[in-house]
């Protein structure tokens, strides 16, 4: 019977992998929000009428959402990778 090894998720390498996934998600969220603002006139007009902070709040909301989603996806990938080895 094999000894039970700890998950790669708890190690420093696992945390670095999770931070990498979070940063990739944040970058994708920022790119998506800026593309959406620049390419869709309806969104730009809506944000223009929303006040001075509306575009920043809109971008930060998408960045946070994408970062959380990418981090959770990273957890699934690391755990699946851990099961295979």
TrEMBL record:
Annotated source species: Bradyrhizobium ottawaense
UniProt keyword Transmembrane present: yes
Regions crossing the membrane: 54-80
Domain of life: Bacteria
Lineage, uppermost ranks: Bacteria, Pseudomonadati, Pseudomonadota, Alphaproteobacteria, Hyphomicrobiales
This protein's UniProt keywords: Membrane, Transmembrane, Transmembrane helix
Protein name: Uncharacterized protein
């Amino acid at each position: 019977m094999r000894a039970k090894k700890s998950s790669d998720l708890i190690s420093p390498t696992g945390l670095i992998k999770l931070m990498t996934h979070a940063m990739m998600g944040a970058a994708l969220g920022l790119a998506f929000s800026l593309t959406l603002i620049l390419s869709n006139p309806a969104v730009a007009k809506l944000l223009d009428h929303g006040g001075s902070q509306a575009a920043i709040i809109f971008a930060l909301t998408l960045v946070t959402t994408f970062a959380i989603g990418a981090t959770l996806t990273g957890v699934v990938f690391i755990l699946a990778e851990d099961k295979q080895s």
